[in-house]
Amino acid sequence: MSDAEPARLTPARLGLGPIGSRRLALLCAALTIAVLPLVFTDTYWRTNLIVCALNVMLAIGLDFVLGYAGQLNLGQSAFYGIGAYVSTLLITRLGVPFWPAFAGAVAFSCLAGVVLSLFAMRLRGHYLAIASLGFAVITYQILLNWISLTQGPLGIYAIPPPPPLTLPGLPAIDFHDLANLFYLVAGFALLSYLLVDQLIRSPIGETLTAIREDEVSAASLGMNCGAWKVFAFGVGAAVAGAAGGFYAGFVGTLVPDAFFITESFTILAMVVVGGMGTLIGPVCGAILLTLLPELLRGIGDLRLVVYGVAVTLVVLFIPGGIAEAARLALGRLGRSSRRGGAR
Amino acid sequence: MTADAARPEIDPPQRRVLLRAGGLNKRFGGVHAVRDISLAIPEGAIFAVIGPNGAGKSTLLNLLSGIYRPDAGSMVLGGIDLTGLPAHRRVRHGIARTFQKIRLFRHLSAIENVVAGFHIHYDIPAWQYVVHGPAFRRNHARCRQEAARLLAFMGLEARAHLPAGSLSYGEQRMLEIARALATAPRLLMVDEPAAGLNTAEVDTLLERILMLRRDGLTLCIVEHNMDLVMKVADRVMVIDYGQFLFEGTPAEVQSHAGVVGAYLGGELR
Fold first, then answer.
1. Could you read off the pLDDT of B131-164 as tens digits, one per residue?
2. What is the DSSP string of B5-45?
3. Contact B119 A8 (CB under 8 A)
4. B17-28, strands of its sheet edge to edge
5. Contact check, Cβ <8 Å, A199/B129
6. Cys-Cys link to B111, which of A51, A60, B160, B225 (CB 3.0-4.6 A)?
7. In a shared domain, residues B243 and B190
């Protein structure tokens, strides 16, 4: 059926590439992750790499909710913070080992996402944005003011990184080493990507996209829009919670300011600049917007201006983001090469 | 009190009633959009609802499909009480619909629109949504195949991979029907399917509607185009100002003075 129409670059075609190319892309991604800490050996760049990986997770989580289910969620910073605080408190207060605490952080963030979306189920667009932003503000205020639990603005210090991992037949992998920590976080980022990618390629992806496009229509086909939105929020928040679970052990200190609402907008910018409703776009957006301010450090405070202008220009002129720009460029390349071949 | 008692019996041989609604009422603020409407749609029939602009036809359809909740009244489909069910649950009992103002997933391709209509028919273990196994692949292939068949049935096979929003108006109407059919309904409700279509497209539509009925589907058509209604409908219900006016065969409707009055803007009652 798809052969009947040669040389048409449709989104469906681009999204449903042959399995071989997906495996290849996965291999390339894994190789890139493996090589990066070998290329960047100083602490500064390795730290940036880990921040990139964390932001990739946050952006993937938000993209699932915003880009696919079409729900403008500004609460991502809260789920990130909940993940970080839950895992840290479980470790420092209750002496829970890292991995169960990590699982608890993911589960609790997921629950928070589900609860928020249950309350906000009837809201959409700007109203949902306001409600979810309110949730982010409330979460931040709780982290800041529930001092007996979170130590408020004083923060929690000396949080250990994940415990060494011992694999049979290998020396223990110590996560004090930033390269190893990067492998861990980037591995989870890749895992999140694969998880969300699989969901999107399943009928769930079709359902969420349908709900994004037209809820009344989706309901007329038997889709329970409310339940699916709750599901999307749960997945998006769980991924953010996982990022939070790594954040504390990576940074070593935890203060509420790391999860102020501006973080939500930064994540939103990553998704929008990368291209909502694609997965690879927000990944690129997250990496670009993490590294851009670092690369622009040379020009001092002007970097914030450049950053802001760059984001604004993308939103104004390439609303589809990096993914859309790449698609158009590839399409043009394809056309011109075909034309060249015909001559 | 039942609608049938007061009205002429359905044409012989007596058909089973598929959808029965009684005493439907819907108000929007001060507007009484639907007032005490009862209806019985016979199984396998084409049931048309006609009436002037603003008569409450679309509101009635929205009540039947569950988009609006009635202020009063009840609905039963083949023995199942639909009254309190939301739209998405009614689909599982076999109600599908199209919209007067086209509501396609504009950025999805035509075939993806139809595939979305298979939502309630997926039969995949939950874990295969994450790890795509054999059941997933079987379902996926079957849905695509079935969707392609439905597109071909509506004459859209050449448009399968174009975004729905880029299709012509007539094609979009056909695509909405194909998408609704993907839910495998017992009752298909189409809201003004001929609006905006040219004569050739109306003919195609007519032919498809008759083919669907021949295959055993029950249809409820809300329509302005009297020509189409008179050609295909088995029963015609006329409403005006949200109220029941008349029900009968197309021939009876055409000779009914009140109906002519309503359409010509004459005095009622």
1. 888 888 888 899 999 999 999 999 999 999 999 9
2. HHSPPPSSSPPPEEEEEEEEEEEETTEEEEEEEEEEEETT-
3. no
4. B80-81, B72-77, B17-28, B31-42, B243-248, B235-240, B46-50, B218-222, B187-191, B95-97
5. yes
6. B160
7. yes
Query: Are B234 and B120 found together in one domain?
Result: no
CB contact under 8 A, B119 and A203: yes
Q: Which residues of A touch B129 (CB under 8 A)?
A: 198-199, 202-204
Residue in chain A nearest B122 by alpha carbon = A203
The one-letter code for the residue type at B22 is G
B68 and B81 in a single domain? The answer is yes
Same domain, yes or no: B227 and B153: no
Banded model confidence at residue B108, pLDDT cuts 50, 70, 90: very high
User: B121 and B56: one domain?
Assistant: no
* Secondary structure of residue B218 in the 3-state scheme: strand
Cα separation values, B195 from A227, B128, B254, Å = 34, 42, 21
Per-residue pLDDT reduced to its tens digit, A40-49 = 888 899 999 9
Query: To the nearest whole number, what is the mean pLDDT of chain A?
Result: 87
Range of the domain at A250: 19-260
Residue A72 within a domain: yes
Domain count, chain B: 2
Helix, strand, or coil (residue B79): coil
What does the pLDDT read at residue A94? Answer: 92
**Residue A219 to residue A233: CA distance in whole angstroms:** 19
Report the C-alpha dihedral over residues A126, A127, A131, A137, rounded to 10 degrees. 40
Tens digit of pLDDT for each residue in A230-258?
999 999 999 999 999 999 989 999 999 99
What is the spatial distance between Cα A211 and Cα A202, in angstroms, rounded to a whole number?
Answer: 15
How does the average pLDDT of chain B come out, rounded? 87
**pLDDT single digits (tens) A79-129:** 999 999 999 999 999 989 999 999 999 999 999 999 999 988 888 778 899
Distance from CA of B214 to the nearest CA of A (A): 23
* Type of residue found at B43: E
Say how many CB pairs under 8 Å bridge A and B. Answer: 114
Q: Which of A8, A202, A224 sits opposite B129 (nearest CB)?
A: A202
Report if residue A54 sits inside a domain. Answer: yes
Query: Are residues B120 and B34 located together in one domain of the fold?
Result: no
